[in-house]
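Subject: Sanity check before I submit

Could someone independently write out the structure tokens for this chain? I want to compare against mine line by line before I put it in a report. The sequence has 145 residues.
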Amino acid sequence: MPPDAPSFDPKAFQEYISLLLASGFTPTTIPLVPGTKRPACVHKGLPGPFPHYPWTISRALLTGSRSGGVVVLDVDPTKGGTESLADFCRRGMIPSLGSTLLVATPSGGLHVYMDARGSRLITNAGQIATGIDLRAEGGIAVRPG
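---
Independent answer below. Compare away.
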């Protein structure tokens, strides 16, 4: 992770979610099995809301239309994701990083939260660029915090 990578700021994340809500987003989360990135309930094809289980700590954001169009680029610097993200920015392929929310992940990666309302992006792993997974329609991204 580059030395200038952002750390998780709970206030900034909450402000970002508040802005999303104010602009029509409906972020939907699901519980995760403790210590994993696996959903603790069935969520595919279901509209929600999803239960809160007292034994779960982490939650994941459903990405794509189920959360009003939020997509997440999951950047893995150990697989070349930092260079791929820089290339995307140079080529104007993603919004200015100043208009997105950047969150450092526990594994040393980066999540880039973006507004993709109206797009038809689908979740894929490593297909859009080296070291970058796209969490979009049909996907989930572990929430920070």
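---
OP: Matches mine. For the report I'm noting this point. Residues 28 and 48 are 8 Å apart (CA to CA).
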